Prior knowledge:
2 copies of one chain form a homodimer.
Chain A: H1 8-15, H2 19-28, E1 35-36, E2 42-43, H3 46-60, H4 65-76, H5 83-116, H6 126-132
Antiparallel strand pairs in A: 1-2
The structure holds a DNA duplex.
Amino acid sequence: MIEPKLTVGQLATATDTKAVTIRYYESLGLLPAAQRNSSGYRLYSAQDRDRLVFIRRSRALGFSLDDIRELLSFSDHRQASCAAVDAKIAEQLVQVRLRIRDLQGLEQELQRLIDCCQGGVIEQCRIIESLTERH
Amino acid sequence: MIEPKLTVGQLATATDTKAVTIRYYESLGLLPAAQRNSSGYRLYSAQDRDRLVFIRRSRALGFSLDDIRELLSFSDHRQASCAAVDAKIAEQLVQVRLRIRDLQGLEQELQRLIDCCQGGVIEQCRIIESLTERH
DNA sequence: ATGAGGGTTATAGCAACTATAAGGTCAAGC
DNA sequence: GCTTGACCTTATAGTTGCTATAACCCTCAT
């Protein structure tokens, strides 16, 4: 059984991406220039779909498109050591953890602000006051 | 004692902001058009500085410049109820918590990826494989 | 008077899309 | 056979919150 090729809209639906985003990735070279049918429509194979899934999964994990370009080039060198991949994932984990700590700081600050407001008018509102104080 | 006015660079230093950013805020109307000296240099009062501190503190808490525009307008209506301010902070807290949960999901995913890699070559690397699987 | 270190404006670039315009294609229903 | 609507094409501009660059002006110490 031959694989059916997908149009950009079908691929978009299949991968929960927007068609414009797919074309955007192509324009950046993250996806190869798609095959075209006789009237210029893009056609995608299962392999193209896999590559897009890879990109979207990586994006969902917080990698930048530049990071992803690198990850993709790793995945194209099937005989290379996977140490570099490992390192890249580990570094991303570090970044994510930093960001979490960051946000937990904000969370506490915001909670503190909410706690210190007793209602009433702005003039007496300790929130607005707090925001004007330097740290 | 009269207040000394600050130049943009001095204000920048005093508030840990960059001069360009201050001018940018002015261009957006977040800061009022600054007073100028005879040769066109911007001059800032303590009140201007307070407003900038407010903006920067709010940015540090993750508010967008649009949010901040709103917060500033609240703080300019000193007799209004602070309920709206409260609500805005509470909403931001919700968003921050969502983002934290999000990132904790990523954290686990990344950890899982790292755990499943046994070293070796890319071809056998379960990380790359995992990234190509749809969720 | 010259150079360093401020200041001024306008414009372009960054990431990762998203939106819009202006048009070509295709399958279905009448 | 024709129209309608949903798709496709490209190119360009907008989004957020800055940052960088260019090209110029001002001030002060040497």
